[in-house]
Amino acid sequence: MDKQLKFPENFWWGSAWSAEQAEGRGTTGKAETIWERWFKEEPNRFYQGISSAVTDDHLHRFKEDVALMVATGHNSFRTSISWARMFPDGGTGEVNPQAIVFYRALFSEMKSNGIQVFANLYHFDMPAKLQDIGGWESREVVAAYVHFADTCFKEFGDLVEHWFTFNEPLGPILGGYLEDFHYPNLIDFKRGAQAAFFTILAHAKAIEAFKRHQLSSKIGVILNLSPTYPRSKNEADVKAAEIADLFYTRSFLDPMVKGVFPSKLVQLLEQYDQMPLDFQPADLDCIKNNVAQILGLNYYEPRRVKARLTAINEAGPFLPDWFFEHHIMPGRRMNEYRGWEIYPKGILDLCLDIKNNYGNIEAFISENGMGVADEERFMNQVGQIEDTYRIDYIKDHLAYVWRAIEAGCNLKGYHLWTFIDCWSWINAYKNRYGLVSLDLTTQKRTIKQSGIFYKKMSAANGFEYNMENLN
Ligand code: BG6
Fold first, then answer.
1. Catalytic residue status for 464
2. 261-276: per-residue pLDDT in tens?
3. How confident is the model at residue 170 (pLDDT cuts 50, 70, 90)?
4. Which CATH architecture has domain 2-469?
5. Residues 6 or more apart from 60 whose CB is under 8 A from it?
6. Considering 23, 32, 168, 375, which one is annotated as catalytic?
7. Which of 14, 94, 223, 381 is a plausible cystine mate for 76, CB 3.0–4.6 Å?
8. In what order do the strands lie in the sheet with 325-326?
9. In 246-344, alpha helices (H)
10. Active-site annotation holds for 406
């Protein structure tokens, strides 16, 4: 049975990307980031040896890109402000007037085209020089970040509608300290815990600075969250899921939104001697008093967990999966290109968790999307990608967002990852996520079928959906 799903008035329809993934290095002056540094050191780690030097060349093409935002139905868009571009001496020192000109021009262009500006201050792109003094393990870096944030509030405060301190702060900890997919490529939980703690402190201190500017905008954070499902109701599976959830979900969500750390996680880290070495009572006060005012939810896949089947190697490094194993659920629907399970109902469970356990804070889906390899396969004779799978993916997830709103969740919008196909870290251009395709040789942008659908959906503030697909 088809039903017209209508979303609340002024729902945010849009998408997101980040500075390092889209701008290109350009010639405005920019410090080396850890991605550029890592590429120099190990280009073999990047898919097809492609760096972030050019990406979408958005720096020079932003006017055309804003026109494409309009053409694909955006009323809001998130990008990040590059710390390295704002402070080309390595993340500190003099602010770069050319960076201010660029971001002011971009944000003004968006605003004059009816697109609200969502600006994020950190999307994995640490200036390399600051990494040299410890990155997020260093209080000095926290201070430099707060200065950068404060400069952005001053320079762009009149143009930005929503601010975000971090995108997916868990990512650099997982990748940089536990799983080797992000600089500085360490395997060291305790140092990761320190970096996580200082990231959370940096978030709180940036919010503290933001309040001093008395802007009418709001500030929050964007977290990658997955509901955690135990394989079964067996006590051992349930316990394994609880622990995985503490590490991956509550670790950042609780302090950044509620101002407190989950006591069970703290106890566990104390028991295994994995607490960060440097945390002061004044830090905890600052975290308590400066919490997110709005929450972005990045949802791609559920987390399925079971009790460990094998013994851990205690001589090896301490890792969260000492306590659980990932469960491959028979019958799951997969995005094989990215290796992520597709489970649209997870978005509803996630939103209900936020409603029930986090004071129903104002929230939105800040990322959700489907990366597909070799999309040229689906190109028609006029050069357009017929990505019907992406349209289905979007509808399937949005139907559960609609249901979450019906259930009282305080959800204000939906942003897709991503707008124009962009550079995806070590995967470079392997998987394409955009509403608009990008020809890497010519930089030509072409709206995909999903972009046309997105425009219609945004104009109608909803879409028709077969409710039998919901369960
Ligand atoms: C999100 C990030 O986790 O997922 C983006 O915020 C990223 O930066 C996106 O590009 C898709 O993941 P990937 O690894 O396929 O690029």
1. no
2. 999 999 999 999 999 9
3. very high
4. Alpha-Beta Barrel (3.20)
5. 24, 26
6. 168
7. 14
8. 228-230, 303-306, 325-326
9. 251-253, 263-271, 281-289
10. no
